[in-house]
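Lay summary. Proteins are chains of building blocks that fold into shapes, and those shapes determine what they do. In this project we predict the shape from the chain. Here is one chain we studied, written as its sequence of building blocks.
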Amino acid sequence: MRNLIKDVMVQLDGYELFMKERKRKRSESAQKIYELTVEAILCDLVYRELEQPRGRVHLSQSNQVLRKASRYKGKAMGKTLPFILKVMSSLEMGFIKLIPGKAKFSSSEGSPTIVGAGKQTIIAADGSLLRNIDTFGVSVTDIGRSEDEETILLRGKKSKGDQPGPLIEYKDTEETDLLRQQLTEINCWLAQADLDHDHDDVKLTDRRLRRIFNNGDFQQGGRLYGGFWQRMKHSDRLTWLYIDGDTPVELDYGQTALLILYGLEDAQVPSGDLYDLSEFGIPATCRPGIKKVIQASINSEKPLKRMPMGARTTLPKTFSLNQVMDAIHKKHPLISHRFNEGLGLKLMRAESDILIEVLLALKNQKIVALPVHDAVLVNGNYEQEAKAVMVETFKRHTGLVPEVTASYA
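And here is the predicted shape, written in a compact code that computers can read:
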């Protein structure tokens, strides 16, 4: 891929010289942005072509987008992008096929005229670029995500329809610098990890993690996303994934939110399963439904008025919401006053901090660990070492000893 980019750059330089496109030499910083932009265009198009022959990439050439500074926008999405696309799609170069976007479109279907939102520009690999993919023997494993990509994301409140909240710009602080530094260390470690799979539609290069915080507050959320293994089914991860040449074990913290709440209150944890209400007349078979009710109560900012979605799958109608909540309060009298305070995402922040520390500690022991929310995947040969790290890290944060369960293929 590097050779392909170098070859295209030589041809673009020759074109600029021959066509006298420039009156003066670019500054050092402008030249760097120029090269990064060409590289990004080529990598996106080649990756898309390898992913789906004649596949297209959509992007914006709007000045409102290209001239607006944003930590979430790649350096390639700058004001020089339209010029570079124009040159690369010229008859002389013919590297890409370009269908220009429109600021707005209109169509007359009777009367009146309908005016709608604009259309993005569409580009696709073409001509010599298509030939060069074969000539240089490029594969998807030659292309990764840019190290400049922002890994600490802050989102606003969810919009209607439960869509993710909009990305929010923020100023860096000592905290965000530390969060990014931790994640950079983890991503560098995972980038060179020996991972493989026997499963279709898995992209091994998708292993760059990011943390997403919610509601415009760095104290809410913070879970890790972006790893290809996170999008696999639980059974597929255990069956088709290989870490350092062997199948993994998935180690999962149990009853995390409740335990963190007990830790915050410095309260003694009841013995046994924290979701078992059988001593209050609700059978143990109702556990999944009880768990949903407890999670909903922790997340909600006011008392529940109806059963959470899916809870009735195991909670029969013979048990009303009031009966279930009464049993929960009796089971957890020391922390039940913290229910209905909307603490869910704050507890998630604590959980995700614990997991970050687990990943870094395992890295220091040369153990590759892949996060899945409040669980990690490790080579089965390191199960005991990873368990010990998870227990010690959780205990250090909460003062409590968690249960760590293991899942195998």
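What the prediction tells us: The two ends are 36 Å apart (CA to CA).
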